[in-house]
Amino acid sequence: MEGEGRIMRHPVTYALAAVVLFSFLAGNADAGPKFEGRKKCSSCHKSQAKSWKKSSHAKAMNSLKPNKKADAKKKAGLDPAKDYTKDKNCVGCHVDGFGQEGGYTIEDASKYTTGVGCESCHGPGSKFRGIHRKAGAKFEKKGKTTPRKKLAAAGQDFHFVERCSACHLNYEGSGWKGTKEPYTPFTPDVDKKYTFNFDKYVASAKAMHKHYKLPGAFKGKPKFKMHDEFQAKAGGKKSKKSKKSKKKKKKKKSKKSKKYKKSTKFEDVFKNKRR
Fold this sequence. Notes:
Flavocytochrome C3, Chain A, domain 2
């Protein structure tokens, strides 16, 4: 009987262990992407990060400090002397991922989520960042591209309009469908400079960052509507991979032309001999 009791208890233990394991795996599978902070993004995108540091989005949190942007605050009906950096109704539009997993918190503020950085536009990067790294390595070594839809499936945003509108058009009468409290006090009625033009500002290096040549590791849709335009005007050097492939093509061409010249000379000599 004692042995039977042991045997009977084991299936129950296994069943409980299976339930716990399933719950853990299911929880992980359903978990959405988390904010990681721009430190991880900028470890590869160094030029973009350097340019972004000079932008108005990088300095967004400064405007919430006491006596900063005093005239603008007065116009909007705010107290210029007040410290708004701890105000939960304000900080959301001045940081990355406020109120979301891995995002900025007032209690434990991280400098890597302070300011409107990479993930505010491109989305929380915990799931798609690794795809970027692997795709870049694959393209560098083998010249093989990765479908852009893999990034979209992992949570990367390629449109940005809704993310921008959530702050810049979050006031009554803006025409944006997603408006909700707390509304921004900085509206075109307060000052016309707050009129938001997405196409204009997304192309501004002062607001966002400069655009640099991308290596071309990804292809296909979805693609940001201004991607090709930005890349056509982008600064910076082309990737090592594209340079290598160009050199290989040149070598192949020169080999072919040499081969052709040799064969031509041989044919000429042969014809002359026959004559």
